[in-house]
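Q: Structure tokens for this one, please.
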Amino acid sequence: MTRRLQVAVIGLGSMGQRYVEYFRHLRKTTVVGCDPRRKTFPVGVVCVETLSELLDTTTPDVVVIASPAAHHLETLYAVRAHHPDCAVLLEKPVSNQRLTQRDLRRCKALLNSTIAVGYCWRFHPYARQLHAVKQAIRDVTFYVGSDMRTWPGEHYADPLREFSHELDLVTYLTTAQHIDEVGFTPQGCYQIDGTHQFGRWSVRIAPFQSTPGRWVKAVMSDRSVVTHHWDVRPRIIEAMYRSQAAQVTHATGPEGLFCPLRSGLQTTLLIDEIDSRLDAKGKAWQVM
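A: Here is the predicted structure, written as tokens:
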């Protein structure tokens, strides 16, 4: 008889609920939830309130860490200490603040583990298309706008980290990234510009824009221009999350992951450098 797959979802906010719904409908899979807020417990799913109880009473095959970003790393370390062989999906961002040298050392010690970071936009069909021709990308610009004040969850990190999918796509689609300029527009939009091996990259983030928008524009080596307004229909979004969860479930090592911890750290260090430069210039505002 085939053993049931056991999945533990830590953090039952909007992202955690998404993963619970995905895994609970898989055949021969048992889902256990963990959140200090009993009101978040999904009907029909066994849940506990503390991480220590979860780790002491379960032996999960897969762990999804979807708690607030402030707790991501401490939760990852605890999971690895108790269950060194399980696969882990760590939701982005890796941390809500710049990595300390101690955190960097601890993360690097885990690079050979099956740990994925939740930069699921790598699974978007447009990102896959661009990745297939990444050597031909010369100049690329990413834009994302949304109003964080309308988001359903709680305890969000800094906008630079919450909107970091675009910065992750910079690391996914280019090589040898260098940051040239960082700053804000008068409207509070992040402006980040840099170079890569074959050209330039730019990211624009508008975290309090009432009309959502997301697009990419790439100038190719043959001077053609590729522009995509990201398809954000529910079926596309759900497909990305399902693909990510399925990959983590079936991977046997980091080499089988679209965004292993090594890649997630590369993106995180890029974010940390941008954050440090913004601090040096004086950050204009905080999350509302």
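A few notes: The mean pLDDT is 94. The radius of gyration is 19 Å.
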